[in-house]
Specification:
Length: 157
């Protein structure tokens, strides 16, 4: 079983775990360093006994779909780790964490709230146009980039 040409398979040995991050809904989420990608986010999807061929192919198919998405309002999937007992996502680092954390720390003016909503809608429209249904839209799944712009996280695998 091979990884699709648009989906990069990354070896876990190419990542150096730096620190745990607090914006993971499930599984472990770490800030990592990669020798060519720089700082990335590693999200463990599954750890345990090796999966069957059908289960692994399902992960590959969804990973392939997600890796083809490219929009300024959607978090980019950079690759996957598919090793026995370790299925993980490698995503771009969005440095300011999730929207919920930001809203707890910062008083956001109404004008900025309007921009936040529009940026989330841009990401959702793009996903919908690409036949991706986001089943868990909530502030924890909206990430805030270094310039305080929103990115929708849709990497559940």
């Amino acid at each position: 079983m091979s990884v699709s040409s648009s989906l990069s398979q990354i070896s876990s040995t190419d990542l150096i775990r730096k620190e745990p991050l607090d914006y993971g809904g499930f599984g472990e989420v770490y800030l990592c360093s990669h020798k060519t990608l720089g700082h990335v986010v590693l999200k463990s999807v599954y750890t345990g006994p090796p999966r069957s061929g059908n289960q692994k192919q399902s992960l590959l198919d969804e990973g392939d779909l997600m890796s083809k998405l490219s929009h300024r309002r959607v978090v980019k999937l950079l690759g996957v780790i598919l090793e026995d007992g370790n299925y993980s996502l490698v995503m771009e680092l969005i440095p300011r964490g999730n929207l919920l954390s930001m809203l707890k720390k910062v008083a956001v003016p109404l004008s900025v709230k309007g921009r936040i909503i529009l940026e989330i809608l841009e990401g959702m429209v793009y996903l919908t146009e690409n036949r991706v249904i986001h089943k868990d839209l909530k502030p924890e799944n909206i990430l805030v980039d270094k310039n305080f712009h929103m990115k929708v996280k849709k990497h559940s695998l």
